[in-house]
Amino acid sequence: MPELPEVETVRRGLAPVMEQAIITRLVLRRPDMRFPFPADFAMNVAGQRIISLSRRAKYLLIDLENGLTIVSHLGMSGSFRIEAGGTADVPGDFLMERSKDEKHDHVIFHLEGPSGPSRVIYNDPRRFGFMDLAPRSELATLPAFRDLGPEPVGNSLDAEYLATRFAGKAQPIKLALLDQKVIAGLGNIYVCEALWRTGISPLRPASSLLTKTGRMKKELPALVDAIRQVIADAIAAGGSSLRDHIQTDGSLGYFQHSFKVYDREGEACLSPGCGATIQRITQGGRSTFYCARCQT
Predict the structure, then answer these.
(1) Which of 18, 230, 243, 248 could be joined to 89 by an S-S link, Cβ 3.0–4.6 Å?
(2) Catalytically active residues, by annotation
């Protein structure tokens, strides 16, 4: 499923076309995807100006002039396609071309923007994605957002905050970091990469980053810095996680070629002078890649 950098890349790709455009018509080509569409969805958004596009964790938020927000999740295979001026672009950065098969086009936004008419089409072969509609003022109370932790690139995430969440926690640090109640939007790939950068074993208890008296060890601020940097690197490169995602201009991204541990099982560790090989284990039903020599 797309991780935070992929969703942020999609947001940035859609913003120039969708922001300040009017939704002249919304076409729903089926009654549901992962969940049924909201009642009167098309009617409630038709004629509305799109004020802004934002992101919370792995959710894309489309704010409308009437105070409603379209909440969109890409699921496993969802993507948006922009059709304007006779061209079709897919915002994002996937390793292989995203589906453009029209039989999987489930939602079509007909837009009239400053640059003229366009269509933004949501395509999803597996239909694990979904769209919801809610008042912007009530988003924080929705089940999807109610218990989310701070963003990994926001000012609320710091070593002091993680120290409070990790105190007394015997859960492995890898699983603690994947808990969306601890950090919102931080996914498997970037947890593996951040732990490698800081030399922390994914098997260590989260509480091991604190002393017995509750003082944080120097690894904890370093981990926060690594999380911020690995996310920033991925966003700058256009996202990386899915195997079939391309940028708006059709070119492949680059961060997927910069993984130090993720998906490198059996390959040599890239830490200078290490010489060990990357191992893969399963934690919480997900693959963890790490170097047992460098990460202790």
Answers:
(1) 248
(2) 2-3, 58, 286
